[in-house]
Amino acid sequence: MFEVVKSSISFLTPIPVRGDVEVLRRNLWIFPFTAVLIGLIISIPLKLNILFLSLLFYLAGEGINHIDGLADFGDAFFAPDSRKKQALKDTTTGTGGIAAVVLYLLILHTTLQSASVWQIVFAQVLAKYCMLLLMYISRPAWDGMARYMMEMIGKKDLLIGFLPLLPAAYFSGIASFAAFTMSVLAVLSMQRYAHSKFGGVNGDIIGATNCIVFALSLAVFTVLPSVSL
Asked: What is the pLDDT of residues 81-111, one digit of tens each?
């Protein structure tokens, strides 16, 4: 179990621990559990009342891998159909990718300052769960890390990975149900779009989904009143 936790932390965060990808892909259910740690790290400025450092702590907890995926997806989204796959694979970042990242960071800068600790934790757990959901219902677009991970995902990962959502939803309020519903719809939309335009999903699309769900969930908490259960 310790090796599973280490591998997940190594894969999902910039925390310098040594992990084993082979162990991780056989235990993908650990993603939402690791998200609790990430959410708590991101919440540190809120507890210390140093909100201007919220984005810095977000990067400390999440790293830039998923943001990089969002940038690549942004480039592909705005590219013409004939160049979408090429744009997704391109290692350089274009205008579409920059726009997507800037918008994402602006949303985080606004919402992280008004969210509660449990809302941030819930949004992170939901983001990681939606990564699992997307991998489970999708096919890989081509060979790569996404295919390697998706080969091992099963119902067990979805069932066990759902467990951290329950206490997080309880403490984050009724709005968490709206966030969950909208996030699942976002995953279904992403799956349909990716299959239509790319023939499946890759690591960038999975990472972009993480960012979209995290920002969407925090936006829901900002717009809807927080009502404790």
From this structure: 888 888 888 778 888 899 999 999 999 999 9
